[in-house]
Design a protein that fits this description.
three-stranded antiparallel β-sheet, about 20% strand, three-stranded mixed β-sheet, about 40% helix, about 170 residues
Amino acid sequence: MANAPCFGNISAHREFDLYKDKLKKVLVHENVRVHLVSLPLIGGNSSLNRFYKERWKDRDPEVLKKRIMENKTLIQIVLKSNSETEAEKKVYAIDISKVKEVPFHLFMTSERAILFTTLSFPGKIVARNQRVEIVGFETGDDAIMSTLEKGFFNRVDTVAKSYPTD
């Protein structure tokens, strides 16, 4: 669960270029279950769009557009792989008429979970040279992870819909 289905390729683009091939292999792997929920990549005056415009204002807008297309392509690859694997793969977009930003970010495997939230995004636009403050925790506790998984799917059921495939 995240504000953007970007896998770090916009906010941490240098690092993303180093791990994107490995990430793609993991996301489409036949034994890896994927459930991604995020705000859709939309234009307009959304907090997500304002964040990207501020963080990328000194760069070529075509580069940002290319990065967004990379995200959409990766999502399409994950969705297409769903029919070719045993493990379920679903991608959801948060309905922005219900929620303007996610209350927390969650990354979870069968062994670990990381839950965090940003303290300055997206309610406040952060300049490119300013740090985004984050608070969170990591756990391997089965009971906590079970609660997080239930909370995740409850959130998906109440605020998200299947990701547009166009």
